[in-house]
Amino acid sequence: MSAVHVSTKINGDDVEFVCRPDESLLDVLRDRLGMTGSKEGCGTGDCGSCSVTLDGRLVCSCLVMGAEVGGHEIGTIEGMAQGDKLHPLQQKFLEGAALQCGICTPGFLIAARALLERNMDPTETEVRYWLAGNLCRCTGYDKIVRAVMDTAKDMRKAAAKSSAKKPAAKKSPAKKTAKKGARHAA
Amino acid sequence: MRYEAPDTIKAAVGLLSKAKGTSRILAGGTDLLVQMRSGMVEPDLVVNIKGIPGMRDIVADKGGYRIGAAVSGAELEEHGKVGQMWPGVVEATNLIGSTQIQGRATMVGNLCNASPAADSVPAMIAAGATARVVGPKRTRDVPVESIATAPGKTSLAKGEFVSSVFLPKPPARTGSAYLRFIPRTEMDIAVVAAGIAMTLNAKGVITAARVSLGAVAARALLVDACAEAIIGSTLDDAALDRLAAAASAAAKPITDKRGTVEFRTKVAGVLARRAAVIAYDRARG
Amino acid sequence: MPLDANTPDLRTEFKSVGTRPNRPDGVDKVTGRARFGADFSAPGQLVGLVLRSPHAHARIKSIDTSAAEALPGVKAVITYKDIPEQEGCDKDVLVNIMARGTALYDGHAVAAVAATDAAVARKALKLIKVDYKVLKHVTDVDEAMKPSAPVLHPGRFEPVDYNSLETASHVSGKQETKTKTREGSNIAGRYVFGHGDVDKGFKQADIIVEHEFKTEATHQGYIEPHACVASVSSDGMAELWVCTQGPFMVRDVCASLLGMDVSRLRVTPSEIGGGFGGKTTVFIEPVALALSRKAGKPVKVVMSRSEVFRCTGPTSSASMWVKIGAKKDGTFVAADAVLKYQGGAFPGSPVEMGAMCAFACYDLRNVRIVGYDVVTNRPKQAAYRAPGAPMSAFAVEGVIGEIADKLGIDAIDIRLKNAAKEGTVSSYGPTFGPVGLVETLEAAKAHKNYKVKLGKNQGRGVASGFWFNFAGNTCVSINLNVDGTLALALGTVDIGGSRASMCLMAAEELGIAYDDVRAIIADTSSLGYNDISEGSRVTFSSGLATIKAVRDLKKRMCGRAAKIWGIPEDAVKWENGAAHPAGANAGGFDPLSIKEIAAQASATGGPLAGHYEINAEGAGPSFATHVCDVEVDPETGAMKVLRYLVVQDAGKAIHPSYVEGQYQGGAVQGIGWVLNEEYFYGKDGTLQNAGFLDYRIPVCSDVPMIDTVIVEVPNPGHPYGVRGVGETSIVPPLACVANAVSSAIGVRARTLPMSPPKVLAAIEGVAASKA
Ligand SMILES: Cc1cc2nc3c(=O)[nH]c(=O)nc-3n(C[C@H](O)[C@H](O)[C@H](O)COP(=O)(O)OP(=O)(O)OC[C@H]3O[C@@H](n4cnc5c(N)ncnc54)[C@H](O)[C@@H]3O)c2cc1C
Ligand code: FES
Ligand code: FES
């Protein structure tokens, strides 16, 4: 098995690594780069605890090959806070007790951030469907969904404030996502 | 295992043709990586096609759309126009997995994985989609229903792969829909599914229809009897009853961890009926 | 003495307790910094993997490891021979961690390897040749009790007179032919509880309802697979980093299995990614230690998700019969039940607790419960949240729902009429002290959810539930730092925010700020023995010990103040974070704050610490009542939970957010159990759905918000009135949802899960019988 040499960007930093072609991005992050914030709950795409962004898109890092991320940009939980300033979602999860054991938390945070970047005004149904690929066995999801909705609310308020100050500012991102809740299921 | 990421179709075909042992195309990887992890396949060669120009493009073509083999479900949804033209197909594709899976999974991967429960396949069959197969000898366009032959088996020859799927321009007053049954609301494989496309005349009479059922046989079925049950009708109750009966009659399912023969048979009819109602409403606009 | 006079044993007014501060381990957990089981690594570690039986039941004729051993990169291969039986060890655990002669279930460990990387280890597993002779298997509990069933442990359990089994007359209907086989049986135990005269009681009944019920095994489904790193040095000193609910248990069990002195093995618990009872035993830990011992290097073993499903303990599947008689006004006059739980390949199913809980919610004159513990070719069951109770509650609460319907009595009213209260002699023996079932029923009835009008195909269900709550061995230390802040060392792993609750109680007791206390979970060499974090015991027991350790510290701090002031110790009292003279006679000294006392600790006699150890008693039971609304699609059998309400007695909610979290999490686990979760076995006895795609735990879009009401009926056994809250919440949902479905479409589901195919078949059955 010939190893592959990969140059990529993780959380804005240039990173190089060597991996075997059968290693997943999650294996690389955890075992080669020591970034253990992304968790392996299943290794088969079912639990979302390994969620990262790949060129801004939410994916399961256990279903991405390490070998294929050359030239792409990866975002992990380790890059979510800016220095010692937590991302608003991290802060809300903490305050709202949206975690019990916390193993699912990094995945939920990455997934929720991807949602709020696309849609700052999601309905409860949209939040639930967007997060359906993230399993949590402890919380029953209630406080997680609330934390995401509360963060969205804060973000809308902040956006309204800043656009009131400077009327020329960009409007909040168009609501264009998570139609899943509305789609026809049997 | 060797990993290759060629940048032309020709190079990819060359690699696949020459490879010894087991080789696999890597599209979104949402089936392939799971299968590798469980030891179900141990490929000697993996060919990532995502870097080949055109593979990630959706191109307007002859009034319809050609969708590259590496276009993910999320990209297909965001395109918007394909969904307006063939809502059944796009909705079916978007049902696959979770948000995370949508970021990677492709329609073509769904097709070539050849699972009888693949969501996008009955919808594509109903839409009359064709797959473009490239290979060492020639390039051919084939109906999508001819790709899967049995669970996990395709009609692709050594060195061949699918480079795109073509969704034709639908006639005026055409509507499509896809419904599946899963025990949860998300993150499940279809227990039974129905994809429908139909065209109406100005009076609202169905003049053409294609009905496909998923997860009720070794591969997705195109059921002529279902189409015949509604062609010529305005989808009145009698036509819907005939449709449901035809769908249940065509279903040849098995009992497994996901459902029973009785359940799949009955619900095939229920879903065909419900999908038909949606497609009919869409066709009327 | 004044100290005690000022700190009454049962506190009712609180400053810190009852608030909702951020947890001390929170930032690490939202930034990915917290280290869970698989996040530990040791320098030079090897990768350990386990070879598992592909057969449900097979004799292992031989194991040839030579090819694996010869593979470059392989540093150790072990079989049961490398873990010889030690005197006094738990033989069942020994056999479960590594098969000895017979593989007893699909996934049973047979051998293990340690290699330089995962790819080599995987290759090595394939090179191990095991020669199996496949035996007849049995996975169903009723089948396993038949004389024709293959016997798992020949000669171990008494042969049974099948005609004398309660099961024969009550349940199967058919009489089994009387055979006493030489091999014995699969019936590992029989338990009987109750009082009064059931037969007499039934004679007074105006209505009697009796049915058979079946539930499938469900898995705890924690998202973090089992993981550990073991390091055994050549001098026998050993370290183990592991995700577990019980580091002391892991230490003691591993030491006894491997023949080590307990002092040689130090176990450090990682953060734990869920357990729910499933991490209260050992699986890979002794194997990793044995591999490390043989290889002479640290070894890391992490289970795959499919291993978690195949080889760690789900809970029991159950087959039950319940009969209840009532008067026209709804008063229960007699109750009878037979419970049969299979606990996998070894004895120890939670049928005893299931039997004790079955009728615990009700005040009954005549009651009897018989429980059978049965072995089958399935993985050894492990505790799962209120072990044994959800199944028996499913049957009992289902029968009660039917009686209420038949008598035309409101579902809450019939429970109020029969509810257990203070002074009730419980169906399992003890007499209840103050308990809160009535309060939960009344609060449920008053809740807005109970008044919502229902639409077509919608229905409402009600069910109550009970759990004892455990107490047990606990040991806590609290150390005063030089600046007056505190370090609290706990020996009970934090599974859902308990560190925050302990800090709140310490702060409350000291009258200082929550942020001044930092709680950590100690390793097994730093603190005395603590029982496992299970049985909803942590907030109660470690809380009690924390409060008592703080009181010990306060006493010492008062002593230092007395020394400084030159007055007797008992002339000093503790108030609002400072030592005060107890009264005017003691002298006119300014209070000495905890910070001042800390600063002078060295000068006044050395470091200050408080300590407490206890084998606690007095855990108060927690009752709950759940109300749920569902909508059923009559054409597909699909179900949607529209609303869900949990009302439960917490005694005292220390950190209400985490109490609500327990209520919500337990309810959703219960919803998963009733709707879709199940162990699905093939004809060959192998597990067909060992992954999260087909073992369907609820996803976010499956459930609504879970409404909660915290009832507080203080437990007199705890200084703040705390009861455990973690487990009761999974007891009512099974029946609650089933009762709701019945009210929606008139179909009574008595076999779980109520997956759509079953519901649809039942709907069609009802339609056919009406036609
Ligand atoms: C958690 C989870 C949930 C899922 N849920 C669903 C679901 O709801 N419905 C559903 O239908 N499926 C589901 N799947 C399966 C999978 O996501 C889909 O089948 C998906 O569409 C596969 O696309 P892919 O691009 O990821 O395929 P890949 O994994 O890249 O490929 C799949 C197979 O097709 C072959 N292949 C791929 N592209 C080509 C090509 N162009 N030419 C020839 N062969 C090719 C590959 O070699 C491989 O054998 C799920 C999977 C996971 C992990
Ligand atoms: S570990 Fe990737 S989805 Fe579970
Ligand atoms: S908090 Fe434990 S799994 Fe989500």
SS summary, helix count of chain B: 11
CATH T-level topology of the largest domain in chain C: Aldehyde Oxidoreductase, domain 4
Estimate the mean pLDDT confidence of chain C: 94
> So what's the CATH class of the largest domain in chain B?
Alpha Beta
Q: Please trace the helix and strand order of chain B, writing H or E for each element.
A: EHEHEEEHHHHHHEEEEEEEEEHHH
Percent of sequence in beta strands of chain B? 15-25%
Largest sheet strand order of chain B: 4-5-10-6-7
Quote the distance from N terminus to C terminus of chain C: 80 Å
Q: What would you say this structure looks like, in words?
A:
The complex is a heterotrimer of chains A (186), B (285) and C (771). Chain A has five helices and five strands. Chain A has two domains: 1-79, Ubiquitin-like (UB roll); 80-161, DNA polymerase, domain 1, CATH 1.10.150.120. By secondary structure, chain A is α+β, with helices and mostly antiparallel strands. In chain A, α2 packs across α5 (142-165). In chain B, a hairpin with a 5-residue loop joins β6 (130-134) and β7. In chain B, α3 (73-79) packs antiparallel against α5 and α10 (237-250) crosses α11 (261-284). Chain B is globular and about 55 Å long. The model of chain B has no long low-confidence stretch (mean pLDDT 97). Chain C has 22 helices and 26 strands. Mean pLDDT of chain C is 94; it is low at 1-8 and 171-178. By secondary structure, chain C is α+β, with helices and mostly antiparallel strands. In chain C, the strands form six sheets. Chain C has a seven-stranded mixed β-sheet with strand order 3-5-1-12-9-10-11, with helices on both faces. In chain C, a hairpin with a 5-residue loop joins β9 (227-232) and β10 (238-242). Classes of the chains: A alpha+beta (186), B alpha+beta (285), C alpha+beta (771). The complex binds flavin-adenine dinucleotide and FE2/S2 (inorganic) cluster (2 copies).
